[in-house]
Amino acid sequence: MANLSGIGSGQASTGRGLPAPQKLRGEGARTLRAGFIPLVDASVLVVACEFGFAHKEGLTLDLVKDVSWANVRDRLAFRQFDIAHMLSPMPVAAMLGLGSNPSPAIAPFSLGRGGNAITLSNRLYARMVEEGGLGGIGDALANTQALATVLRRMTSHGEAPPTLGVTYPFSSHNYEFRYWLAAGGIDPDRDVKLVVVPPPMTSDALAAGAIDGFCVGAPWNMVASERGVGRIVAAKQDIWPSAPEKVIGMRPEWAEANPETVSRLIVALDAAARWCDDPQNRDSLSDVLADQRYVGAPVEIIRRVLSGEFTIDAEGQRRVIDDYFVFHRGFANYPRSGHALWIYSQMARWGQVRITPAGMTAAASAYRPDLYRLALGDDATPIGSDIGIEGASADDRFMDGHIFDPTAIEAYVEGFPVRAAGSASAFDAEN
């Protein structure tokens, strides 16, 4: 259960000293309490608050920095938050009744794409080079295949499996880490041990030897590599470039009671996302994110992360990832029902749910393109169905070559050679 005593400053802001916003028709003056985790992918929410985009729409955002996704989930459910920065699978899990506090939640706005990476300890990576035949800077698939070789040797010598951290059971990090491992022939429920680690604690946990690797959002992967305690071995773009990342979550009954507020919020977030995508604004964005009220990481690291410039290891080897963060371009904010169904497929793949017609309907209902379209109009939405074939285009392929057809989810899941054998995953889904 969440700590309900109040985490973070919870300081309200109308945006750089602007006067109080005007009242909304029929809904009163709107101050929205919004929970967030200190990650770069909270940028759109922070910018909407700090640079006046919310104020222009008659809203005041009271941003509350929290420490874990379970806290964010519970404080939204218990009405301490009106809206929340959430992992893309969290509303899907909520609508499916999964987890220890499955209060319904919907997502009418995506906060963009990108930002995740997988980091392993230097010790484990050294074994991948020595025992796994990894030469030079391997790509994501070569890295997981080398790790698979190391794990087979560890098993044969009676060594305990590595402990790997994800941020939440129903998270893009969990499903992306599992996808990466399984692409190399590694069973995430048998060959490694997965545990939950809050994002800001991942680098420290790796340095202390409490975990052997993690999947987390920026800037914590680069913080670990800059400290010399880990090696970045894969990025979100390597696994699936269009994978949904974070969303704005809210309770469905709150959205129904405050339709004008929801529309104005979406308009403000859309404007903030456009601002975040402009390279000319990166320095200003980095400065505000570096503030302890928000991400609280070194400003130079945040600048490089926003540019996709990675220091991947202690030796200073670098990698540049184009479009590591996309905040607005390519309809990045549009909440596609097909993405919710892909998340559902991964829940089924790893034994968290069984595939049923009712489950598919519930999963798709978590994402609300209708509310997005109502606020921004048809011109702001992509042409075609919200439920499309994913991974079929040359520039948006899954790392293992699979193609997701949401009309054939069962066949899609059964097509993976590595998947959960039973109806429940060994990974605790009740955190």
From TrEMBL:
Is the keyword Transport in the record?
Answer: yes
Compartments, as annotated in UniProt: Endomembrane system
Q: Which SUPFAM superfamilies match?
A: Periplasmic binding protein-like II
Q: Where is this region: Disordered?
A: 1-23
| One of the record's GO cellular component terms | endomembrane system
Which key words are in the record? Cell inner membrane, Cell membrane, Membrane, Transport
Its domain of life reads Bacteria
Enumerate the Gene3D superfamilies for this protein: Periplasmic binding protein-like II
- Name under which the protein is recorded: ABC transporter substrate-binding protein
Q: Please give the organism.
A: Ensifer oleiphilus
